[in-house]
């Protein structure tokens, strides 16, 4: 009888222990890193979803529509490039609406407005907006009052009839602007504090096969002029750290070359780079595999239910303790690395775990951008769906 009572007591204790586990501890997803062979290695969950904040909860009369960028300043104010609604929304740290920037009077005294703005960056003094469909950068003060317009840069180094489409930007401590144009393949556009074009930095590597090189040597001048032109791939996003090093991403690299670069650690075909002011890639690639998203991938189309091919990297954000993350639009995952660039494990703040759950647990969603809240040490990603929301 005593043994029976002890057994019942033990079972009840186990049930009570299970019952006290928080919802956050029971996550419907798996968190992983990679072993030396490139296989998944399970690791503990460090982040779990806390809340979902949609347009109504933010106090917006007009719901967000396809927001493309997010920035958090030192005071925890949150800036959202609400692209389709042609505005930048400004919220407080609790994601409550403060004001928005849409219409203004420009430096010619003429009524003006944003159009299809895709990027926003904030310093201690100014709000910089990539006014994409107006082909310009517009500056405002921190109260949203108009300051200046940086028009399309002019230089002989731009190809004839080139199109300028600024989609993302970063500003360093000296006020220099680094602009990513979706139609510019020469690298990141650098513009000085005075608004003058100063050059390009970090042009991507061009891949030409040995056969193509041989064929071009045998071609006449006329044949070379009419043959296929080999140009660099363009960048799609940018971020900057406290030391003014620039992180850039691209999703235009040929998939087999990108995937091979993860194992070979070839910087030329890397989808994410860390550039100094001279445009040199100084990103450390010391882990088992170079940063680039998914390591073990299948051939595209291998299964109707599985996603194949290389990751499609569309954004980069810098986190606490030297961590940084990239987002894979194709798989709807975020991968986090440390300063030495090994894939994050349980010993390094693995912010990817929060977002992996959020993205994989929702249907018909697409992550568009994300940013770190430095004070609260959390990541705020956008999930684009019919009712656009921010996850905390």
CATH architecture: 6 Propeller
Report the biggest beta sheet as strand number plus sense, adding barrel if it closes: 4 strands, antiparallel
Uncertain spans, ≥5 residues at pLDDT below 50? Answer: 1-25, 224-232, 345-365
End-to-end Cα distance, whole Å, is: 52 Å
Count of domain modules: 1
Strand content: 25-35%
Mean pLDDT: 77
Residues in helix, %: 10-25%
- SS field, number of helical segments: 6
Strand arrangement within the widest β-sheet reads 3-26-25-24
Based on the structure, what is the oligomeric state of the protein chains?
single chain
Radius of gyration: 24 Å
Q: Could you please say which CATH topology applies here?
A: Neuraminidase
Number of E strands: 26
- Class derived from helix and strand content: alpha+beta
Task: Provide a compact summary of the structure.
The protein has 392 residues and is of the alpha+beta class. It has one domain: Neuraminidase, CATH 2.120.10. It is built from 6 helices and 26 strands.
